[in-house]
Amino acid sequence: MNTLHPDISDTCTQTDKLLWDAYARSAGNQPGVSGDGSLVFPRYREEGKLRVSEQEARFAFVEALCRGPLRYSVEAPTTKRYSFSGAGSRSASTDLQIHEMNKAGICNIEFKEEGKSLDAKDNNSIRKDVEKLLREPVWGLWFHILEGVDNSTINKLMCVMASCISQVQNEPENDIETPGLTLHICVLRHGFSLQKDVSFSKNDTELIKHLNVDLRVSRDKLIDVKT
Questions:
Q1: Fewest CB within a 10 Å sphere: which of 34, 70, 154, 159?
Q2: Does the pLDDT value for residue 148 go beyond 80?
Q3: 155-190 as b/e, with b when 16 or more CB fall inside 10 Å?
Q4: pTM for the model
Protein backbone atom coordinates (compact mmCIF):
# COMPACT_ATOMS: atom_id res chain seq x y z
CA MET A 1 0.00 0.00 0.00
CA ASN A 2 1.53 3.33 -1.08
CA THR A 3 -1.47 5.55 -0.35
CA LEU A 4 -3.92 5.91 2.51
CA HIS A 5 -6.36 2.98 2.70
CA PRO A 6 -9.41 3.96 0.55
CA ASP A 7 -11.89 3.25 3.35
CA ILE A 8 -9.90 5.52 5.69
CA SER A 9 -9.72 8.22 3.01
CA ASP A 10 -13.49 7.97 2.63
CA THR A 11 -13.83 8.26 6.42
CA CYS A 12 -11.82 11.50 6.26
CA THR A 13 -14.29 12.85 3.69
CA GLN A 14 -17.26 11.86 5.83
CA THR A 15 -15.59 13.36 8.91
CA ASP A 16 -15.18 16.67 7.09
CA LYS A 17 -18.91 16.74 6.32
CA LEU A 18 -19.81 15.98 9.93
CA LEU A 19 -17.49 18.72 11.20
CA TRP A 20 -18.73 21.32 8.71
CA ASP A 21 -22.32 20.46 9.55
CA ALA A 22 -21.66 20.61 13.30
CA TYR A 23 -19.83 23.93 13.02
CA ALA A 24 -22.55 25.53 10.90
CA ARG A 25 -25.28 24.24 13.18
CA SER A 26 -23.43 25.31 16.35
CA ALA A 27 -22.64 28.78 15.01
CA GLY A 28 -26.36 29.30 14.38
CA ASN A 29 -25.80 31.64 11.46
CA GLN A 30 -26.38 29.16 8.64
CA PRO A 31 -28.13 25.82 8.14
CA GLY A 32 -26.16 22.62 8.46
CA VAL A 33 -24.55 21.15 5.36
CA SER A 34 -26.57 17.95 5.47
CA GLY A 35 -28.47 17.93 8.75
CA ASP A 36 -26.52 14.78 9.57
CA GLY A 37 -24.51 13.89 12.64
CA SER A 38 -24.93 14.53 16.37
CA LEU A 39 -21.85 16.62 17.17
CA VAL A 40 -22.19 20.13 18.63
CA PHE A 41 -19.34 22.58 19.25
CA PRO A 42 -19.67 24.04 22.77
CA ARG A 43 -19.30 27.72 23.61
CA TYR A 44 -16.93 29.37 26.06
CA ARG A 45 -18.81 30.91 28.97
CA GLU A 46 -16.89 34.19 29.01
CA GLU A 47 -16.35 34.99 25.33
CA GLY A 48 -19.41 33.17 24.01
CA LYS A 49 -17.46 31.92 21.00
CA LEU A 50 -17.31 28.33 19.84
CA ARG A 51 -14.61 26.09 21.27
CA VAL A 52 -12.83 24.15 18.55
CA SER A 53 -10.52 21.36 19.68
CA GLU A 54 -8.97 18.15 18.43
CA GLN A 55 -11.57 16.23 20.46
CA GLU A 56 -14.35 17.30 18.08
CA ALA A 57 -12.28 15.96 15.19
CA ARG A 58 -11.66 12.68 16.96
CA PHE A 59 -15.31 12.07 17.87
CA ALA A 60 -16.51 13.03 14.38
CA PHE A 61 -13.95 10.65 12.88
CA VAL A 62 -15.17 7.78 15.07
CA GLU A 63 -18.79 8.58 14.16
CA ALA A 64 -17.88 8.43 10.46
CA LEU A 65 -15.77 5.31 10.96
CA CYS A 66 -18.66 3.43 12.54
CA ARG A 67 -20.56 3.71 9.25
CA GLY A 68 -17.95 1.69 7.38
CA PRO A 69 -16.25 -1.72 7.56
CA LEU A 70 -13.20 -0.82 9.65
CA ARG A 71 -12.63 -1.07 13.40
CA TYR A 72 -10.65 1.11 15.78
CA SER A 73 -8.88 1.21 19.11
CA VAL A 74 -8.42 4.30 21.29
CA GLU A 75 -5.05 5.43 22.73
CA ALA A 76 -3.45 2.36 21.20
CA PRO A 77 -0.04 1.46 22.71
CA THR A 78 2.91 1.84 20.34
CA THR A 79 5.09 -1.09 19.32
CA LYS A 80 8.27 0.90 20.04
CA ARG A 81 9.57 2.69 23.12
CA TYR A 82 9.91 6.48 23.27
CA SER A 83 11.83 8.92 25.43
CA PHE A 84 10.12 12.30 25.18
CA SER A 85 11.22 13.58 28.60
CA GLY A 86 14.78 12.26 28.54
CA ALA A 87 14.11 10.19 31.68
CA GLY A 88 14.05 6.70 30.21
CA SER A 89 11.97 5.17 27.43
CA ARG A 90 8.57 3.53 27.49
CA SER A 91 5.65 2.66 25.26
CA ALA A 92 3.58 5.64 24.11
CA SER A 93 0.11 5.75 22.51
CA THR A 94 -1.59 7.11 19.43
CA ASP A 95 -4.99 8.82 19.42
CA LEU A 96 -6.63 6.15 17.25
CA GLN A 97 -5.49 2.99 15.51
CA ILE A 98 -7.53 1.66 12.62
CA HIS A 99 -7.97 -2.09 12.20
CA GLU A 100 -9.25 -4.26 9.41
CA MET A 101 -11.88 -6.87 10.21
CA ASN A 102 -9.17 -9.41 11.05
CA LYS A 103 -8.06 -6.99 13.80
CA ALA A 104 -4.75 -6.16 12.12
CA GLY A 105 -3.71 -2.54 12.72
CA ILE A 106 -3.27 -0.67 9.43
CA CYS A 107 -3.12 3.03 10.34
CA ASN A 108 -2.26 5.27 13.30
CA ILE A 109 -3.98 8.65 13.61
CA GLU A 110 -3.03 11.79 15.50
CA PHE A 111 -5.47 14.70 15.79
CA LYS A 112 -4.44 18.34 16.24
CA GLU A 113 -6.08 21.76 16.08
CA GLU A 114 -5.21 25.47 15.74
CA GLY A 115 -2.66 27.15 13.54
CA LYS A 116 1.03 26.56 14.13
CA SER A 117 4.15 28.60 13.44
CA LEU A 118 7.90 28.08 13.56
CA ASP A 119 8.02 31.25 15.68
CA ALA A 120 6.14 29.47 18.48
CA LYS A 121 8.23 28.85 21.59
CA ASP A 122 7.41 25.17 21.78
CA ASN A 123 6.27 22.89 18.97
CA ASN A 124 7.32 19.82 20.94
CA SER A 125 3.81 18.36 21.04
CA ILE A 126 3.79 18.35 17.23
CA ARG A 127 7.23 16.79 17.05
CA LYS A 128 6.36 14.00 19.50
CA ASP A 129 3.25 12.98 17.57
CA VAL A 130 5.10 13.19 14.24
CA GLU A 131 7.79 10.90 15.65
CA LYS A 132 5.21 8.30 16.68
CA LEU A 133 3.59 8.33 13.24
CA LEU A 134 6.91 7.98 11.43
CA ARG A 135 8.54 5.32 13.60
CA GLU A 136 5.59 2.92 13.90
CA PRO A 137 5.33 0.22 11.15
CA VAL A 138 1.88 1.21 9.84
CA TRP A 139 0.56 4.07 7.72
CA GLY A 140 0.26 7.39 9.58
CA LEU A 141 -2.55 9.93 9.32
CA TRP A 142 -2.24 13.48 10.64
CA PHE A 143 -5.75 14.99 10.90
CA HIS A 144 -5.60 18.73 11.60
CA ILE A 145 -8.67 20.87 12.27
CA LEU A 146 -8.67 24.66 11.78
CA GLU A 147 -11.54 27.00 12.58
CA GLY A 148 -10.48 29.43 9.85
CA VAL A 149 -7.46 30.42 7.78
CA ASP A 150 -5.79 33.48 6.33
CA ASN A 151 -3.18 33.68 3.56
CA SER A 152 -0.40 32.33 5.78
CA THR A 153 -2.07 29.78 8.09
CA ILE A 154 -1.56 26.65 6.00
CA ASN A 155 1.87 27.78 4.85
CA LYS A 156 3.03 28.13 8.47
CA LEU A 157 1.53 24.79 9.47
CA MET A 158 3.32 22.96 6.65
CA CYS A 159 6.60 24.62 7.62
CA VAL A 160 6.20 23.32 11.18
CA MET A 161 5.36 19.82 9.92
CA ALA A 162 8.35 19.79 7.58
CA SER A 163 10.64 20.98 10.36
CA CYS A 164 9.42 18.32 12.80
CA ILE A 165 9.73 15.56 10.21
CA SER A 166 13.28 16.67 9.43
CA GLN A 167 14.15 16.52 13.13
CA VAL A 168 12.90 12.93 13.36
CA GLN A 169 14.71 11.95 10.15
CA ASN A 170 17.98 13.34 11.45
CA GLU A 171 17.97 11.43 14.72
CA PRO A 172 20.88 8.93 15.04
CA GLU A 173 18.71 5.79 15.13
CA ASN A 174 16.69 6.86 12.06
CA ASP A 175 14.35 3.87 12.51
CA ILE A 176 11.44 5.24 10.49
CA GLU A 177 9.20 2.33 9.53
CA THR A 178 5.87 3.78 8.42
CA PRO A 179 5.18 3.07 4.72
CA GLY A 180 3.76 6.58 4.39
CA LEU A 181 2.13 9.61 5.92
CA THR A 182 -1.11 11.39 5.04
CA LEU A 183 -1.72 15.01 5.96
CA HIS A 184 -5.37 15.98 6.16
CA ILE A 185 -6.48 19.53 6.98
CA CYS A 186 -10.15 20.38 7.61
CA VAL A 187 -11.09 24.07 7.68
CA LEU A 188 -14.42 24.67 9.39
CA ARG A 189 -15.51 28.23 8.69
CA HIS A 190 -14.55 28.14 5.01
CA GLY A 191 -15.84 24.60 4.46
CA PHE A 192 -12.94 22.96 2.62
CA SER A 193 -10.33 20.29 3.27
CA LEU A 194 -6.96 19.33 1.84
CA GLN A 195 -5.20 15.98 1.78
CA LYS A 196 -1.71 14.86 0.75
CA ASP A 197 -0.24 11.32 0.75
CA VAL A 198 3.53 10.92 1.02
CA SER A 199 4.71 7.32 0.64
CA PHE A 200 8.19 5.79 0.85
CA SER A 201 9.96 2.48 1.23
CA LYS A 202 11.37 1.57 4.62
CA ASN A 203 14.83 1.09 3.12
CA ASP A 204 14.74 4.00 0.67
CA THR A 205 16.87 6.58 2.45
CA GLU A 206 16.67 9.08 -0.39
CA LEU A 207 12.88 9.26 -0.18
CA ILE A 208 13.06 9.51 3.61
CA LYS A 209 15.60 12.30 3.32
CA HIS A 210 13.43 14.23 0.89
CA LEU A 211 10.13 13.71 2.67
CA ASN A 212 10.21 17.31 3.91
CA VAL A 213 10.64 18.48 0.30
CA ASP A 214 7.46 16.62 -0.63
CA LEU A 215 5.70 18.45 2.17
CA ARG A 216 6.85 21.81 0.89
CA VAL A 217 5.54 20.95 -2.56
CA SER A 218 2.28 19.93 -0.94
CA ARG A 219 2.23 23.21 0.97
CA ASP A 220 2.45 25.21 -2.26
CA LYS A 221 -0.37 23.17 -3.76
CA LEU A 222 -2.48 23.77 -0.67
CA ILE A 223 -2.04 27.53 -1.01
CA ASP A 224 -2.97 27.40 -4.68
CA VAL A 225 -6.12 25.45 -3.88
CA LYS A 226 -7.14 27.84 -1.11
CA THR A 227 -6.76 30.99 -3.15
A1: 34
A2: yes
A3: bbbbbbbbbbbeebbeeeeeebebebbbbbbbbbee
A4: 0.85
